[in-house]
Task: structure prediction
Amino acid sequence: MIYTSDKFHGQVYVPVANWLLMVGTVIVTAVYNNTTSLGNAYGVCVILVTFITTSMTALVALIVWKLHWLLVFAVWLPIVTFDALFMTSAMTKVPNGAWFTLMLAVILSSIFVLWRYGKERQWAAEGMNRPDLTMLVLKAKDGEWKLSRSMGGRQLTHIKGTQCICLKIFEVRRLILCRHRHLLRQSRRPCSYRLRRVLTQIRGPSGC
Result:
């Protein structure tokens, strides 16, 4: 993934995606035996995108822009009516080549829905299996903290310095260690901070 803009974080260029799109375009063009069927598939694709964009814009106006629902409805209704008329007329071309567009949309939507469902199940499992701190550290009768019996039962000691907590298992680069080495050595009070993996914007040699 190559970031093509220093200002917009979401503006990226993925060479592999371009190659996959090229291969798919060549295959679809070769499968269709005439331009009429290919045009039918393209027409249904365009009208579906228009209908979905109109509906998503209305949701953004209600949820993000906080506009009054009557104002949004007054603008959305006539536009979505024309979109629906075009879409219903385009659906008559489904047997003549437009079926491919609907099939591809169902396959991609199923992948996205399944991925989202899997991630939500993963987050729920991580939340349920989160260990309790009392399983790791206990407070003794004299007020000192020590490890639990399952962890060895040793007494904890205070150490001046900096503690790094990694949210996810990832490669700690040498740059991070060098940049924060002075904190590890010169910190007078115990402190801790978390390391979290973030995406780094890298532009290509030609800026694209």
Observations:
- The first helix runs from residue 15 to 31.
- The longest strand covers residues 162-166.
